[in-house]
Amino acid sequence: MGKFVVKEVKTGFKFDLKATNGQVIASSEIYKTKASCLKGIDSVINNAPIANLEDQTVENFKVEKNPKFEIFTDKAGEYRFRLKAKNGEIIATSEGYKAMDSCKNGVESVRKNAANSTIE
């Protein structure tokens, strides 16, 4: 079972979603308050399991409805994903992955772990 870890940073609060093995699989933006950070976690819990998958690395990709995971390549050429809520706001982002399959595994790990994770 995964867990959301909330931490205070200089400018507010953020969370990381960690897999069972302790590896960070998604991170949040920085929120001004702890309460808004916890709302962000709720949004991930509610949206991740039902989110569509939009692969922006292919030509003429199909634009999906929110909520959705968007897979894209960053400036370093690595694959990343971001989870957008129903309102289009980005609620979680991934690290960079060298392989597309690893990135897709990250998406599936967020789907699976978000639903039954604890909050620390």
How would you briefly describe this protein structure?
Helices cover 25% and strands 33% of the residues. It has 120 residues and is an alpha/beta fold.
The percent of residues in helical segments reads: 25-40%
Q: For the record, what CATH class applies?
A: Mainly Beta
Strand order of the largest sheet: 3-2-1-8
Described by strand count, sense and barrel closure, the largest sheet is:
4 strands, mixed
Task: Specify the number of helices.
Answer: 2
Q: Roughly how many Å is the radius of gyration?
A: 14 Å
The overall pLDDT average reads: 96
Beta-strand level of the residues, as a percent range? Answer: 25-35%
Approximate shape: globular
Number of strands: 8
Number of domains: 1
CATH architecture grouping:
Roll
CATH topology: PH-domain like
What are the segments in which pLDDT stays under 50 over at least 5 consecutive residues?
A: none
Task: Look at the helices and sheets and give the structural class.
Answer: alpha/beta
Question: What is the straight-line distance between the termini?
Answer: 13 Å
What is the multimeric organization of the chains shown? Answer: single chain
Order of helices and strands: EEEHEEEEHE
Describe the 3D structure:
- The protein has a single domain, classed as Roll (PH-domain like).
- The two termini are 13 Å apart.
- The longest helix has 16 residues, at 100-115.
- Helices cover 25% and strands 33% of the residues.
- The chain is of the alpha/beta class.
- The chain contains two helices and eight strands, in the order βββαββββαβ.
